[in-house]
Specification:
326 residues; alpha/beta; Rossmann fold; five-stranded parallel β-sheet
């Protein structure tokens, strides 16, 4: 009888251990890091590339595994991915782009799982942190704050007779709404009119782009995931009306925009990876402020400039000439 009790106790302990491993999704104490990328476009891919580099550099000697999942530009899909990662008790969630970050934040809200975000232009407006200086909770990360002042200066230099800048943006993206407000303020000081056209889904873009392109001297993009994912549609209508489109980062210029004052998204991902490593190794996330990168670079697509008969101003002679996408 005594041996039977011991055997039953041993079996119960084994079953409990198996159950714990199954629920946690972990193996031999390895850290599980869940990464949710809102969708597959070059700037977000660059963020992930930098994130991998940052984790590799700053988590030396720590066993970890990355589970990268793509939301395919679907917020509901990001919600499901995040909830599954939380249910599997991952050690950290990382959201690349605002919708993915919001999904991760909501899913982990009532847990002790830390959330790191990458490439969120206005994390305060998105409700992810209390302030840029101190997160105040279990979430922090990096912001891709655009230098819109420098962008407008470049647009004015390339089009001295400019009067109207068009903006196509997604009304549900908090980043785009805040960027639009900043752009309006900058443009008003320079006597430039901002003509805005809001959309809700990708299906709205063709008609909105066609209308907007007939009303303005150029278009200016933000880091609006919906618009960037449908950049080809926007460029088609802009080309039909012989007006330039200014991007918000290098990859948009590669893919057909004329120019941009942009950030290095690989570098932004590296900083994000460093922050994630600091949290995983004991730093207090609630005290960590949002980090940004300040170095910007002018990028130009000379093929587009030639097609539109626009000359490069002397002030931008050091701009990086991109290799257009095939």
């Amino acid at each position: 009888m005594k041996h039977r009790k011991i055997l039953a106790l041993v079996l119960a302990m084994i079953l409990m251990a198996i159950t714990m491993v199954g629920c946690g999704g972990k193996e031999d104490g390895k850290l599980m890091i869940g990464v949710i990328q809102f969708g597959g476009h070059p700037s977000l891919d660059n963020c992930y590339e930098g994130l991998e580099q940052g984790l590799e550099e700053y988590l030396k000697g720590v066993e970890y595994e990355i589970d990268l999942q793509n939301g395919n530009f679907d917020s509901a899909a990001c919600d499901t991915i995040a909830k599954n990662m939380v249910a599997s008790e991952y050690d950290m969630l990382i959201g690349i782009a605002t919708p993915a970050a919001v999904s991760a934040y909501a899913a982990a809200a009532n847990t002790d799982i830390p959330v790191i975000f990458c490439a969120v232009s206005d994390p305060v407006a998105a409700g992810l942190v209390d302030s840029m200086e101190e997160s105040g909770g279990n979430c922090t990360g990096t912001a891709d704050i655009l230098d819109l002042e420098a962008q407008v200066e470049m647009i004015m230099a390339m089009q001295p007779q400019l009067k109207k800048i068009g903006v196509l943006y997604t009304t549900s993206e908090a980043n785009s709404v805040s960027q639009l407000a900043r752009l309006k303020q900058i443009a008003a000081d320079k006597n430039i009119e901002i003509v805005e056209q809001g959309v809700q889904t990708a299906a709205d873009i063709p008609q909105a782009a066609a209308k907007l392109c007939t009303e303005v001297d150029c278009l200016n993009n933000f880091t609006d995931n919906n618009v960037v994912n449908n950049l080809g549609v926007l460029l088609e209508h802009a080309n039909d009306n012989s007006i330039p489109v200014y991007g918000s980062e290098e990859e948009q210029v590669v893919n057909g925009c004329m120019a941009s004052i942009g950030l290095d998204y690989v570098e932004l991902g590296q900083v994000t990876g460093q922050m994630a490593a600091e949290v995983l190794t004991g730093s207090d996330i609630s005290k960590m402020g949002v980090k940004t990168i300040t170095d910007t670079q002018a990028f130009i697509n000379t093929d587009v400039m030639a097609a539109l008969n626009i000359a490069l101003p002397d002030a931008y002679s050091n701009a990086v000439v991109v290799e257009p996408a095939a």
